[in-house]
Each structure stands twice: as C-alpha cells, then as structure tokens.
Write a structure and sequence with these properties.
Structural class: alpha/beta
Number of helices: 11
Helix content: 25-40%
GO molecular function, one term: nucleic acid binding
Number of domains: 2
CATH architecture of the largest domain: Alpha-Beta Complex
CATH superfamily of the largest domain: inorganic pyrophosphatase (n-terminal core)
Organism: Lihuaxuella thermophila
CATH topology of the largest domain: inorganic pyrophosphatase (n-terminal core)
Strand content: 15-25%
Protein name: Phosphoesterase RecJ domain-containing protein
Length: 325
C-alpha cells in the first residue's frame, strides 16, 4: 500500500489544479472522501474543484465545505488531472466525465472489489471498509496534521460504510482509525445522530409504502420490496430518501438477502441488494452489469418491476442451489 500511496502523491504533485469527483447519488463515504481529499490537496498547495452530478444529501450538509461541491453545469473548465473516489468504473461519475480533458489523467482511489482499474494510477484496496479508510492511510503517509474538520470527514466515511461499525467490514484497523480520530476531538455522538438516527418525513412515508409491498420467498431466505414511479411521486421522494430502506427486508429473522426494487424511469429498475452471510450479492449484481461488495451491491435492469424481480430472485436462488445452500 505504501508504494501505491507514493504513486498517488507523485500524481498530485504534477498537477496545479485538480478536479475531485465521486459517484452519482453520493453516500457518506463519497461525500466525506471528496471533501477530505480537497483538504489534503490544498495542504499540498494545490487548487481544487469538487463536483458531483447529484445534489449532496441534506443529512451531510453539516460536513465542512459540503456546500462547495458543485454540479457539472456550474464548472466552466476541463481538467487534465482528476481524482476519482469510491467509483468502481468511469460510468459511476456520470456527467462529471464531461469535465475531463481529452488527455485526462485519473487517480482512482476506491475499495470496491469490482473496480476495473480505469485510472492512470490506481489505489484500490478491496479489504478496506471505505474509501475514507484508504484516505486515512494517505493522510498519515503524507504526515498531514489532523484537525477536527479533517477528522470529522474521515470518521463520517468510516461510520457510514460500516453501518455504524456493525457490518462485517468493521475490522480492527477501522476501529483503531476511529479511535485515533476521536482523540482529535470530534463529536462522534453528534455525527452518529445526524447520519444514522435522523430521517425526513418523506423517507418515513416512503418506508411505509415500501413495507406494504414486502414479500418473502417460500423458504424465507429472500425478502424484497418494490417501489414504482407512482409510489415515489406520491411520497414526493428524492433518491436520498431511499437510504437504508432495503435493510428492513434483510433484517427479518431467517432472511439472508434483502432486495429493494425501484423504478427509475419507464422500463428501468434499480436493484439494491443486501445480505447477511450466505449469498455474495456483489457477484449477483455484477452478473447484471452492476457491482458492489459481497454484502451490499446494486445494479440496474431494463424492463418493468415484475421482470426485474423474476430475474434477480431467480439468479439468487440459482446461487443458493449452486452452493448447496
């Protein structure tokens, strides 16, 4: 890892002005890693522009400089040097790719096992719980002094991508990093309340609607919910209101795989997958052109809700049969 971090350091040293981007519909790791990288680069004397195609979720508005993450239409130049965070492939950057110069050079920092190593320099660690975990190591490598804003950002990325330090990716290294960040003086309980315990009325209405569609397979191993475009319109829901809803299906006793199917447009269905231990949902998502991790993944299928449900559930059942489970 030290060699790759040094390659990352040399990459940014060659640039004066860098674009920092992450994936569409950013989660806590994506937002906090974007800003933390900007702070890191500025400490090296670099000029930085942060961009994301999607609006930043309201729950992350408390993060320092969150309001400085621009949408592509607000950026008037193209960049030769780009830092891409938490993106398994270039497609995940959306319209931010329009800001790349023809001779673009990309530093790819990520923790997804499905990352296709699209960067000029790739710092990809599938064993890391979050991209923030990799950034922690880079900050240490550069000997950048910790301060509460920087520590808050990295802690938020760790907290959200480990589900509040509850998921199987919560390693001893993650907990040691979290402890060190708390020693800097962050308000860990406040961060947890804002990102894990606070919800909107629209999200609760959407959850109520989703739960009314809850179904289980005959053996009780798979559970799923479905949201149509009409459901989303009636709840006045945004993409951030969907956060965490899939877990209610997975959390049922006896269920290993929880799924949320939601229409994103006519004949397009976004599929969110979560599992406890038995099914590698990252492999299931990859089969359908998506990606993610063994316990959390996603993909998009063409067709209606019924067709998507049939295909995905059949694939999961085939995986269970293949493994003799």
């Amino acid at each position: 890892m030290k060699d790759r971090l040094e390659q990352a350091t040399q990459f940014v040293k060659n640039a004066d002005h860098l674009l920092v981007v992450s994936h569409l519909h950013p989660d806590g790791d994506a937002v906090s890693s974007t800003i933390a990288t900007a702070l890191l680069l500025r400490s090296l004397g670099k000029e930085v522009t942060m961009a994301n195609e999607s609006p930043i979720p309201k729950k992350f508005a408390f993060l320092p400089e969150a309001e400085q993450i621009l949408q592509p239409g607000q950026v008037k130049q193209k960049f030769r040097y780009v830092v891409a965070l938490d993106c398994a492939d270039r497609e995940r950057m959306g319209k931010c790719r329009d800001l790349f110069a023809e001779d673009v050079r990309i530093l790819n920092l990520d923790h997804h096992v499905t990352n296709d190593l699209y960067g000029t320099v790739n710092v990809v660690d599938p064993d890391a719980a979050a991209t923030a975990e990799i950034l922690f190591e880079w900050i240490q490598h550069l000997q950048i002094p910790w301060n509460p804003p920087l520590a808050t950002l990295i802690y938020t990325g760790l907290l959200t991508d480990t589900g509040g330090f509850r998921y199987s990716n919560t390693s001893p290294r993650v907990l040691r990093q979290a402890a060190q960040l708390m020693e800097v003086g962050i308000e860990a309980h406040v961060i947890a309340d804002l990102v894990l315990e606070t919800t909107s009325m629209e999200q609760l209405q959407l959850l109520q609607t989703a739960l009314q569609t809850l179904e289980r397979s005959d053996d009780g191993i798979i559970a799923w919910m479905s949201l149509s475009l009409d459901h989303l319109r009636r709840c006045s829901a945004s993409s951030e209101d969907l956060d965490g809803i899939v877990n209610y299906a997975r959390n049922i006793i006896g269920v290993d795989v929880g799924i949320l199917f939601r229409e994103t447009e006519e004949q397009a269905v976004k599929v969110s997958l979560r599992s406890r231990a038995r099914v590698n949902v990252g492999a299931v998502a990859q089969y359908f052109g998506g990606g993610g991790h063994a316990r959390a993944a996603g993909c998009t299928l063409h067709g209606n809700l019924e067709e998507a449900r049939s295909q995905v559930i059949s694939r999961i059942q085939a995986e269970l049969e293949r493994e003799g489970k």
